[in-house]
Specification:
Number of strands: 2
Largest sheet: 2 strands, antiparallel
Order of helices and strands: HHHHHHEEHHHHHHHHHHHH
Mean pLDDT: 81
Number of helices: 18
Length: 501
């Protein structure tokens, strides 16, 4: 049994507990990346369900809210930066627990990879607006996966450096970006809502207008992806002044995102026809800016998208490194993830490794030449694994607090009923969509229109997770696989932010 790497001395409580509700909201809101989700998602969801995005976003919010209540209850009982990995392991067993942690982390790394391409695309769009269309014979095409990825990886490197220097510094940076991007988003969507040529229709809120069950399931999974990220607040629950601050931060961000998504979806459809939404795809927000304003104001949505992508990647690096920190201190992952920087008090080595892995995935994604196709494939893959780990965590809550059935109908409903139903809904949607992917194609092709390809991405992630679980159990002899319990959060040095004092 291997020994742990040496860690620095435990910090004093004031350093360990330096974050508050506002910091949690900033991390959760940045990780959810409302502007990025709206910018790349409104056109994408229109290709699947037409003009029913508003009702799907509202329907998807209901199980996600149930998942959030499960997170809050579990966090109150056992705050741990490994959150779902620890909670599911304790309630449902170490194998599903490890798988929960694994798919959460892999999904986050994939998100960093493809959002890097978004950042690169926006930078190239700025270059085009400035009259620069090629360098050394290389076309600066914002829709090219290869060129946008190369530019985005440079930005990813800078964001990794900022994440290493401390959570508090990163959250302050994210909060400033959030204020700007939401101001721009609300202004343009508000103007579109007032001046749009397309009449508001009640059919936008009718789910029965969706053409098929497969389209409904795919649209719902994509809508769940819109909300994904609010749980990032729970990844710093060992660094907040009170565990309840993490829950409050996540829930505040979640309700704020619902308002933004509904507001934006209606505004987009007031200003743009279905054909315009589908044609512009991930460029829908910049297109909206061009329709509503002249330069230089038309560039503001592009700037907001850039800020959102930057903030979301920054916010994703932070919880991903902390999730791996939690797994590493249980020896389910290697020792590199628990190496804490002596000055900044963050899991610096792990953060850098995450950046390298995301860069490799981003380079491999160049095999899909069109940026819009790569984004759709990535979003669908992440949507399925998000449904998986949210569902497992909700079921873990229902199992852990099953004794609440003796405490009255209200407590039983909140502790067991709502989490169980929400978890089963998401697992059912994911299972149905996976089956639909398997039966929609008769050959394999690197295309978001190919069902086998779309199923293979999440399937490979899950299978790799089972292999890694076997390594943790039989090679590393992790005690987690004997008990299903994570290491006590107070027993090791935490990735706290020493810059807070």
């Amino acid at each position: 049994m291997s020994s742990r790497p040496p860690l620095s001395a435990a910090p004093s409580p004031d350093l360990r507990r330096s974050l508050g509700v506002v910091d949690g909201v900033a991390i959760a809101a940045s990780s959810t990346a409302a502007t990025t989700s709206i910018a790349i998602g409104m056109g994408t969801i229109a290709t699947i369900v037409g003009l029913q995005a508003p009702v799907l976003l509202l329907l998807a919010f209901l199980p996600v809210l149930g998942i959030a209540t499960a997170y809050a209850r579990l966090n109150r009982s056992e705050p741990n930066c490994g959150n779902g990995y620890v909670w599911v392991g304790k309630s449902l067993g170490p194998w599903p627990g490890f798988l929960t942690g694994w798919v959460t982390l892999v999904g986050s790394v994939i998100f960093c990879a493809y959002t890097s391409a978004i950042m690169g695309s926006v930078v190239l769009a700025f270059a085009n607006k400035a009259g620069l269309h090629s360098v050394a014979g290389i076309a600066l095409d914002p829709t090219s996966t290869g060129v946008t990825t190369a530019v985005g990886l440079v930005i990813l490197l800078a964001l990794t450096a900022l994440a290493v220097t401390g959570v508090r510094a990163a959250t302050r940076f994210q909060f400033a970006l959030l204020v700007f991007e939401y101001t721009v988003l609300l202004a343009f969507c508000g103007w579109a809502l007032i001046t749009g040529d397309h009449a508001l229709s009640l059919s936008w809120f009718n789910p029965f207008e969706i053409s098929s069950g497969t389209s409904f399931a795919q649209g719902m999974v994509l809508a769940v992806f819109f909300f994904w990220g609010w749980d990032a607040a729970f990844s710093v629950n060992e660094e907040t002044k009170s565990p309840g601050d993490a829950a409050r931060g996540g829930l505040i961000a979640l309700f704020a995102m619902l308002g933004l998504f509904l507001f934006a979806s209606v505004a987009f459809q007031r200003e743009m026809s279905l054909a315009e939404l589908v044609r512009n795809g991930p460029q829908a927000l910049p297109y909206l800016g061009e329709k509503l304003a002249a330069e230089p104001w038309a560039t503001l949505p592009l700037v907001a998208l850039m800020f959102s992508a930057v903030a979301s990647v920054q916010a994703t690096l932070i919880p991903t490194a902390r999730g791996l920190f939690a797994m590493s201190r249980d020896r389910t992952m290697g020792p590199v993830w628990t190496r804490v920087h002596p000055r900044w008090g963050t899991p610096a080595a792990g953060t850098v490794v995450i950046m390298i892995i995301a860069a490799v995935i981003a380079v491999l994604a160049v095999a899909i030449p069109k940026l819009s196709d790569m984004l759709l494939a990535a979003v669908n893959a992440i949507g399925l694994i998000v449904a998986l780990y949210y569902g497992l965590t909700a079921l873990a809550c229902a199992v852990r607090f099953r004794s609440a059935r003796h405490e009255g109908p209200r407590e039983a409903l909140l502790a067991i009923g709502v989490p169980a139903v929400s978890g089963l809904i998401l697992l059912g949607l994911g299972g149905y969509l996976g089956y639909s992917y398997l039966t929609m194609s008769d050959h394999f092709e690197l295309s978001p229109d190919n069902g086998w390809f779309m199923f293979s991405l999440p399937a490979v992630i899950v299978l790799a997770g089972l292999v890694m679980a076997a390594v943790a159990k039989y090679v590393r002899h992790s005690p987690y696989f004997s008990t299903g319990r994570g290491t006590d959060a107070e027993s090791l040095t935490l990735p706290m932010d020493r810059t807070a004092v």
